[in-house]
Amino acid sequence: MIDKTVSSAAEAVADIPPGASLAVGGFGLCGIPSALIQALYDAGVDNLSVVSNNCGVDEWGLGILLFAKRIARMTSSYVGENKEFARQYLSGELEVELTPQGTLAERLRAGGAGIAAFFTATGVGTQISEGGLPWRYAADGSVAVASPPKEVRTFDGRDYVLEQAITTDFALVHAQVADLHGNLVFHESARNFNPLCAMAGRITIAEVEEIVEPGDIDPDAVHLPGVFVQRLLHVPSEEKRIERRTVRPRGGAA
């Protein structure tokens, strides 16, 4: 029987080298693979190129790698609450490719599906298609590296921009349940980017809250087939945080 479990987070990430590219799941602080990120931090791996919807928050999630200057390049759709992310980007310490969120999701999915590129209407007529978006700033605030122009083609009278698929050396994801074969089930909003990142990674490592025997997950309930997953790490009691807690004033209207 195939058993994809590993004994520790350190073992799970042991072969990730400096300079590797990573697709990292999560949405805000929901469904982030924090145990694997911490293990990567503890291993001292640096010069990483990371693809993720956002970069965590200051000193949590991907934020711990960012704060330690371990990330050289981010491909994201959202800066979020991470002040250090914004500071490093604007000061020229970090290269950032900002991508529309739906386009980022489809680029990851396309990479996992073996599709080299696709046309989308999102971004036509903007710097997304025309080029010139700042990827890296110089110390004096000028643009050191800008995005290149992309191919635009007309279909049925409407313009579309060509977007390249994303594949990465590794993917780090968080799931609620897995069986030993690596079939994954995600919990609610954690399903946003985790399956897509898992598809895009050549080697995908999943930390999971519960591991069950093969056959215990109804095939119709599987969100991501185990063919996309190479390693499983059991994390039954991982800390979960809320990015920003908001509550209705006492006595306020519903």
Brief summary:
This protein has about 250 residues and is of the alpha/beta class. The protein contains seven helices and 13 strands. Helix 5 crosses helix 7.
Description:
20% of the residues lie in helices and 28% in strands. With 254 residues, the protein is α/β, with parallel strands linked by helices. The protein has a single domain, classed as Glutaconate Coenzyme A-transferase (3-Layer(aba) Sandwich). Strands 1, 2, 3, 4, 10, 11, 12 and 13 form an eight-stranded mixed β-sheet that branches. The longest helix is centred in the middle third of the chain and has 13 residues.
Number of strands: 13
Proportion of strand residues? 25-35%
Structural Rg? 19 Å
| Beginning-to-end CA distance, first to last residue | 53 Å
Please name the defining characteristics of this protein.
254 residues; alpha/beta; Glutaconate Coenzyme A-transferase; eight-stranded mixed beta sheet; three-stranded antiparallel beta sheet; 7 helices; 13 strands
Element layout with pairings:
Blueprint lengths: L8 H4 L8 E4 L9 H10 L4 E4 L10 H6 L3 E6 L6 H8 L4 E4 L2 H13 L3 E4 L6 H4 L3 E4 L5 E4 L5 E4 L2 E7 L3 E12 L4 E2 L8 H7 E12 L18 E4 L20
Parallel strand pairs: 1-2, 1-10, 2-3, 3-4, 10-12, 12-13
Antiparallel strand pairs: 5-9, 6-7, 8-9, 10-11
